[in-house]
Amino acid sequence: MAEILVYVDHVGGAVRKPTLELLTLARRLGEPVAVVLGAHAGETAAVLAEYGATRVLTNDAGEFADYLVVPKVDALQAAVEAVSPAAVLVPSSAESKEVAARLALRIGSGVITDATDLEAGDNGPVATQSAFAASFTTKSRVIKGTPVVTVKPNSAPAEPAPAAGSTEPLAVSFSQEAGGTKVVSRTPRASTGRPELTEAAIVVSGGRGVNGAENFAIIEALADSLGGAVGASRAAVDAGWYPHSNQVGQTGKSVSPQLYIASGISGAIQHRAGMQTSKTIVAINKDPEAPIFDLVDYGVVGDLFGVVPALTEEIRVRKG
Ligand code: FAD
Predict the structure, then answer these.
(1) d(C-alpha 87, C-alpha 111), whole Å
(2) Are residues 56 and 163 in the same domain?
(3) Would you say 5 and 79 are in contact if contact means Cβ atoms under 8 Å apart?
């Protein structure tokens, strides 16, 4: 059976959920072979095996942390040469997309970014993408070389399927370019305790209708009752009510959660571009003509200052 390389995103040996989703998708195409780079790489083997990795290729060289991007491209190229996979799957984070693009160029292959689904086809994997602010759904496949595909978080459920997951060292010789951009300092981001916006299964967003930074507390409370992340429209971010890192949309982050709740957001095309692939969309807006209602699964016409706290309370009661 064909082998599929899966590039593992992990933090100090803790595998992030989008990688487990990638392993699920990889199993549709062949046997997943995981590539894990950096410190604590070996500690990921058990969970990768649980989610279907037949082999786990590791390299814990310091270069992966000390320099940007290129050492990872060197390693993935080495893995492609060692395994001759039928495809390479990469999580759709900003850094990983750069790794994927550089890898594809190196190995003379085509690349597809931000796939929202993947299926086996007669001539290689077929990727689903959402284009032009999600007004079109396209299906495409790479026609040259080994397909390199980046897949958005929440594109598939992470389903366990235990496999051998035998750990093997990956030999990497770093290119001259690997040392080009050195990381000189790191500042850890203050943690909110909430899931990462782009990976969260549930996102609760607030817009101009929230009407002030202090009022975002009700959006946060709803997000916390659901274990979700908090997003914001650009209007709310530009007004200084919520950090730019939480902006959803064309010039913000692209999210694709199982559930997206938009409160006091009109549904401008630039906002939709970042959330329209969400599986279930709920909007709370006092204007029944708001464009957001064109794309929702459930719409509540009402004042968010009444609806959001009531919803939060009801969820708390039901959760006991
Ligand atoms: P508004 O459009 O002002 O809508 C507020 C909504 O809240 C209204 O529908 C109103 O009925 C409702 N409301 C008010 N009070 C209440 C209440 N008490 N209860 C319930 N509902 C209430 N926008 C983004 O979001 N993300 C982007 O990445 C982005 N990128 C952009 C890039 C470019 C190049 C440009 C030109 C624009 C971009 N925008 C982006 C801006 C976008 O066009 C809109 O201006 C923005 O999304 C509007 O934000 P909003 O829906 O919060 O505000």
Answers:
(1) 10
(2) yes
(3) yes
| Ligand 1 centroid from CA 264, angstroms | 8
DSSP secondary structure, 88-118, as one string: EEEE--HHHHHHHHHHHHHTT--EEEEESEE
Q: 116 with 128: CB under 8 angstroms?
A: yes
Instruction: Report helix, strand or coil for 161.
Output: coil
Question: Identity (one letter) of the amino acid at 96?
Answer: S
Domain presence at residue 189 = no
**Is there a single domain that holds both residue 214 and residue 170?**
no
Instruction: Say whether both 50 and 124 belong to one domain.
Output: yes
Integer-rounded Cα Rg, in Å, for the chain is 21
Q: Do 262 and 135 share a structural domain?
A: no
Q: Read off the pLDDT of each residue in 193-213 and give the average, rounded to a whole number.
A: 96
β-sheet bridge partners, residue 168: 57
Residue 300 lies in a domain: yes
Pocket of ligand 1 (CB under 6 A): 207-209, 233-236, 247-252, 264-266, 268, 270-271, 274, 284-287, 290, 303-305
> Model-level pTM?
0.86
Atom 15, ligand 1: residue with shortest CA distance: 209
* Domain match, 174 and 221 both: no
Chain segment 171-200, per-residue pLDDT in tens: 999 999 999 999 999 998 888 899 999 989
Q: How confident is the model at residue 108 (pLDDT cuts 50, 70, 90)?
A: very high
Distance 223 CA to ligand 1 centre (A): 19
Instruction: Specify the number of domains making up the chain.
Output: 2
Strand 148-151 versus strand 111-115 pairing type: parallel
Q: Please check whether residues 159 and 96 belong to one and the same domain.
A: yes
Domain residue limits at 69: 3-179
